[in-house]
Amino acid sequence: MSLSRRGSSLFELLIALAVTGMLGTLAANILARAAFQLRDRSERMAAEHGLRVAASAVRSALESLGQDSMSGSDLLSNAAAGFSARATRAAGVACDVSPGRFLARAGSPWWNALRDPVAGRDSILAGALDSTGWRVFPLTAAPRPGVCPDGAAALELPTASDSASMASLGPGSPLRVVESVELRLYSSPPDQWLGMRLLATGQFIQPFAGPLTPTGFSLTYETRSGQAALLPADVASVSFRVEALTERAGGFGLIRGAAPRLDSVSGFVALVNSR
Amino acid sequence: MTASRKVGKSEGRKGIALLLAVVVLSALGVISLTGLALARGERRAGLTAVARVQARAAAEAALADALLGWPAASTPVAPGQELLLVQLTVPGPAQGLARVRALGGPIYALEATGERVSQAGDLLGAARLELLVLLDPPDSTGATRPRPYPRGWRSFP
Asked: Which residues does chain A have within 8 Å of residue B34's beta carbon, measured at their own beta carbons?
């Protein structure tokens, strides 16, 4: 009876160990596959989010660019893997104009700003009242509170200007605070990123979408007639393509060594103010 | 003695099975919940993107209608004075509005807004556009037509 019990226990133990081993292997396999799928899905979602951010940034940077004979083109350069342009940071309406300063109406709905204007970094575009276009002025000092001639609250924008350059500007002139930015593909080994930098401050380029393939950001520029545009002033529309990669750094078990996935987005932007 | 050995074996088996089951079920639970959360987030992002496009379409439609003109006599004059020009609904449904605002000079601002709301009344997406215009003299019917000002279009973030 005792021998029989011992044999049975050993047999049972071996069976139990074998079954446990099989179950463990199976469970590990299932968990590893599930973890892989989860991570793969997360990385694909991150790549898709990066593509959405990139497409949105390119569209918003290009869509409102325009030009006129006095202030030139907002698109400053057009390369195959990037461009530089004036970006609007604030907009308002002048209630008074005099040499050396603009008074812009303050508060909603007059003044719309992404941030406060910064002297030395921003410029002012002022619209002429006779429809000839816009004039460019430097912002020479930090804005300060002021009062419009009709008593309304205002924002004083100091600038370097004389009466001749202020001709045809006056109450009701639209104002834009702009800065020059560059948006392009750049390399930060081992990856490529879509980045942006401010041209006035000479800052290093900052990534905001990626990682991308080595040719992951491409642009083609067209004129109104659909021909390839060589000069920034001729550009009426832009087609772009962004190719993003999923990140594969690290990983464990079955996940290690999996190849990155590729996803892309293409878009077409008509420069509304260039029509 | 036999009874005590049976109890010991039984306790050992229960411990291993319970531990294994708890670990596996916990891991599967975490993975399922994470997957569910990711899927819901993706769906929400998709719905928001569609709602924004519908709101933008409503704003553009309202702006296009406003460009057809309005009675010159009702044109606002004082800075900040506004006149509602267009109110419409586009498929979605999304509501579009367009109004003209005097800026204090010969240049006027046409402002168009679009909103897509859910059946419960929650705002799903919104868009706001502005077009600076100059006004042509009234025609024979007394209507004035706006003419886009250079670099006058912009979209609010």
From this structure: 38
CB-based contact, B107 to chain A, within 8 Å: yes
Give the three-class secondary structure for A132. Answer: coil
Asked whether residue A97 falls in the same domain as residue A72, the answer is no
Q: What is the pLDDT of residues B48-105, one digit of tens each?
A: 889 999 999 999 999 999 999 999 999 999 999 999 999 999 988 999 999 999 999 9
Instruction: Kindly list the residues from chain A whose CB atom is less than 8 angstroms away from the CB atom of residue B105.
Output: 129, 170-173
Statement to judge: residues A163 and A234 lie in one domain? no
For A119-178, the pLDDT digits (tens) are 989 999 999 998 778 999 999 999 999 999 999 999 999 998 877 888 889 999 999 999
From the list A233, A211, A207, the residue with the least C-alpha distance to A221 is A233
* Residue A188 burial (CB count, 10 A): 12
d(CA A19, CA A90): 70
Range of the domain at A141: 93-179
A112 and A72 in a single domain? The answer is no
User: How many angstroms separate the CA of residue A127 from the nearest CA in chain B?
Assistant: 9
Indicate whether A239 and A107 sit together in one domain: no
Domain finish residue from A123, A155, A179: A179
